[in-house]
Amino acid sequence: MQHLVKRLDRPIVLVGLMGAGKSTVGRRLARRLGLPFVDSDAAIEDAAGYSAAEVFERFGEQDFRDGERRLVARLIDGEVRVIATGGGAFVDPGTRDLLNHRAITVWLDASVDVLADRTSRRNTRPLLRNGDPKGTLERLAEERRPSYASAHIHVKSGDGAHRDVVDSILKALEDHLNGSEA
Ligand code: S3P
């Protein structure tokens, strides 16, 4: 794994919809690579003193997005590490552009059934508190697909073991680095 880490000169950033497994897979990926891990929602919470849901509720989605944009820009400026973004971060054109230029972006792509099942376990997502979480995920999947598809690496995230997803990312990272250095 060390040979891969030595070749990394930028952060690895996981993008994708709520429930795709960005935080869980990101944490495991970081552990395998021996790199630090940071979750952008958790960093917003640390900075704001409110959870993502509370920021939405108290200040509205626009304020959350503004804070998220500034925070992601700060996070990628630091050390080489693994960053899990909130599902909407990569939809912002400025953030997407920045990440695709200054990081290696990885789309964790999961079916709406898997996303609906995973997100139903916790009621922490403000966008899914409208009585039709599956319908919302279907709509967001459709709207956001073109943004997520611009990520450098695409990896399927099914309902199997997280370890397999991490293995797929490591393999794809190797290919990506070989391609970008060729
Ligand atoms: C959001 C995803 C959430 C969080 C906020 C908005 C989105 O993060 O940032 O609720 O717009 O998709 P996760 O993708 O980590 O659930």
Task: Please tell me about this protein's structure.
By secondary structure, the protein is of the alpha/beta class. It has one domain: P-loop containing nucleotide triphosphate hydrolases (Rossmann fold). Helices cover 57% and strands 11% of the residues. It has nine helices and five strands. It has a five-stranded parallel beta sheet, with helices on both faces. Helix 3 crosses helix 5, helix 4 packs across helix 5 and helix 7 packs across helix 8. Bound molecules: shikimate-3-phosphate. Shikimate-3-phosphate binds next to loops.
Low-confidence stretches: none
What ligands can be seen in this structure?
shikimate-3-phosphate
Count of helical stretches: 9
The level of helicity is 55-70%
Mean pLDDT: 94
The description of the largest β-sheet is: 5 strands, parallel
Name the features.
182 residues, alpha/beta, Rossmann fold, 9 helices, 57% helix, binds shikimate-3-phosphate
In short:
This protein is α/β, with parallel strands linked by helices and 182 residues long. Helices cover 57% and strands 11% of the residues. The protein has a single domain (6-170), classed as P-loop containing nucleotide triphosphate hydrolases (Rossmann fold), CATH 3.40.50.300.
Secondary structure topology:
Elements: H1 2-7, E1 12-15, H2 22-33, E2 37-39, H3 40-48, H4 52-59, H5 61-75, E3 82-84, H6 93-102, E4 104-109, H7 112-119, H8 133-148, E5 153-156, H9 162-181
Parallel strand pairs: 1-3, 1-4, 2-3, 4-5
